[in-house]
Design brief:
11 strands; D-Maltodextrin-Binding Protein, domain 2; alpha/beta; single chain; nine-stranded mixed β-sheet; two-stranded antiparallel sheet; about 260 residues; 2 domains
Length: about 260
């Protein structure tokens, strides 16, 4: 349970998804959050120095520093991290879309950025570039890779839930599986956050093989999600106040600029 804050001893470490949660070294601050993250560059990932970093990671570290709270990071896959949040083993998840189903077990911060997903296809499939909607892409019998339990906006949700269109979506545990499936011709496209997709293609030198098709879908605002099992509504209110300070005081803009380069 998160309690009143005292000066932190910051723990910035990560465990592989298959391992148990990190145990923070003592002394542990009274105000301490376990933050789950799904490797999703440039928002959240482990760099070459084995440090947890990324746009979202830098933001929450700045906010928790303002609150004088400590932090431990736990790496995992999104589906399992959602389960951990539900039962209170993880206090916080980043870059989350607010949905009615999630509000049953989680609180949400104020919005801190908006999200847009792009459809990516093989560069050789020039015939797919003229298609102008996800529905039309599916109508032409093309399959789309998605990540299980990711929210891609109302249009995609409706199609994924539709009895006639659900089979057009192939779920994976992580976005990079969709890259492999696309190159293996097991799917015809995949949906990925526009910043994440660009970073992934650049990092893997795949720009000559995979390109944005041109279709985008808006998912709305991104929030930070808190477990109702381990975090009180009052603490979320305090977090929002600190988030507002970071967002309006120029610190968040500095973080954004580093990841736009």
């Amino acid at each position: 349970m998160i309690s009143a804050c005292s000066p932190p001893t910051e723990q910035v470490a990560a465990t592989p998804p298959s391992e148990t949660p990190i145990v923070a070294t003592s002394p542990t601050p009274e105000c301490h959050f376990t933050v789950g993250f799904d490797a999703w560059e440039p928002y959240q990932y482990i760099d070459v120095g084995e440090q947890v970093t990324g746009l979202d990671i830098e933001l929450i570290k700045a906010v928790l520093d303002h609150m004088q709270c400590g932090v431990t990071f736990k790496a995992g896959q999104w589906v399992s991290l959602l389960g951990d949040l539900k039962n209170g083993q993880v206090d916080v998840l980043l870059g989350s879309s607010k949905t009615a189903a999630r509000e049953e077990y989680a609180y949400f911060s104020q919005a801190y950025r908006t999200e847009e997903f792009s459809l990516y296809v093989r560069k050789e499939d020039t015939n797919l570039l003229a298609i102008n909607s996800i529905a039309s892409f599916i109508d032409d019998k093309h399959k789309i890779g998605v990540v299980a339990d990711y929210y891609y906006g109302p249009e995609v949700s409706m199609l994924r839930d539709g009895s006639a269109t659900a089979e057009a979506f192939v779920a994976a545990l992580m976005g990079e599986v969709n890259v492999a499936r696309l190159l293996d011709h097991n799917i015809d496209g995949f949906l990925e956050d526009s910043f994440v997709g660009a970073s992934m293609l650049r990092r893997k030198a795949l720009a000559d093989l995979i390109v944005p098709q041109g279709i985008t879908t808006q998912t709305g605002d991104a929030h930070i999600m808190f477990s109702k099992q381990s975090v009180s509504a009052d603490v979320v209110d305090n977090f929002n106040q600190a988030l507002e300070v970071v967002m309006t005081g120029g610190q968040y803009q500095q973080i954004l600029e580093r990841y736009r380069q």
